[in-house]
Design brief:
alpha/beta; Spore Coat Polysaccharide Biosynthesis Protein SpsA, Chain A
Length: 310
């Protein structure tokens, strides 16, 4: 059996170097042939050199250049070029456990599932006392996933059988980093469920997430709330086929709620972190405003469809 590990990266050579070094600790089990594909999504730093100098025992390492900007473009290119029958996805800023490859592939090899949700935890040095479960989940922590029956996956640690691509052929290139900013793996997972595929729980196999510390700044949190709202509006309109009533009035009311909360809580507008209430208000504002903007566009999916039609 062949497996392919896919990492999409852009201008993160230093982080990528550390991740590739950490990959050296991953054990490739007997009977499994594995490769690692790094998809460079248009980097201008030394990403290519980092990959081409990398040697990992038991893994063949390949560099691919995908110039179409966006994480989903990179993932789809990696899937098209990969040789594996099992496709594993992770990020360029993680540290894997030793038994990651074997553990993630096993449910598929044993025919218990067609996809696997792995765990992600935040590196201890990046945890902060003010973080709630919501904050941690927005930083890719997998604690929000249902441990009994996962209905979703986190892109930093997920895998699926190539066979699912016969029905769910690709990640939506209008979602994810480099596009609207979020939601591509959640939509893909929802499509897998609709198609009748099973997602196994391997949340015990945790990638340690070493994201850049700038993501803890308030400005970064507010950007995350905005892109999450816009991504959910895109999915709501095009895939869930939401209706829209009183959209402009609701958008104005949402903007007023954000402004009012900020006027009343100046003491909670700090440089590091962001209050959950403000994040939810900004998320709702972005969701409604973007839904108003796109609600007259032709649907790009049949309701809960598996293949994009527009």
């Amino acid at each position: 059996m062949n497996a392919s590990i896919l990492i999409v990266t852009r201008n993160r050579a230093a982080d990528l170097r550390m991740t590739l070094e950490a990959m050296r600790s991953v054990v490739v089990p007997d009977g499994l042939s594995a490769e690692l594909l790094v998809v460079d999504n248009g980097s201008t730093d030394e990403t290519r050199e980092v990959v081409e100098r990398c040697e990992i025992p038991g893994l063949s390492v390949r560099y691919l250049l995908e110039c179409k900007s966006g994480l989903s473009h990179g993932r789809n290119r990696g899937v098209a070029e990969a040789k594996g029958e099992i496709l594993l996805f992770t990020d360029d800023d993680v540290r894997p456990p030793e038994g990651w490859l074997d553990g993630m592939c096993d449910p598929i090899l044993q025919r218990r599932a067609e996809a696997v949700a792995g765990g992600v935890r935040i590196a201890p040095s990046l945890l902060r006392p003010w973080m709630s479960s919501m904050h941690r989940s927005w930083l890719a922590s997998s604690e929000w996933l249902d441990s009994e029956s996962p209905q979703n996956m986190v892109g930093a640690n997920m895998c699926f059988s190539r066979a699912v691509l016969a029905r769910v052929p690709s990640f939506d290139v209008e979602l994810g980093a480099g596009a609207l900013g979020s939601g591509e793996e959640s939509l893909f997972a929802a499509q897998l469920i609709i198609a009748g595929y099973r997602i196994a729980n391997r949340l015990d196999l945790c990638m340690e997430h070493h994201f850049q510390v700038e993501r803890l700044k308030r400005a970064s949190w507010l950007r995350a709330a905005k892109v999450l709202g816009m991504s959910h509006a895109y999915r709501g309109h095009h895939w869930d086929h939401w209706g829209l009533r009183f959209g402009r009035a609701r958008a104005l009311a949402a903007s007023c709620r954000v402004a009012t909360w900020r006027l009343r809580h100046q003491d909670r507008l700090l440089d590091d972190g962001c209050d959950e209430i403000e994040l939810n208000l900004v998320y709702q504002q972005a969701l409604i405003a973007y839904h108003v903007e796109i609600h007259q566009e032709p649907r790009k999916y049949e309701k809960h469809g598996l293949v994009k039609i527009g």
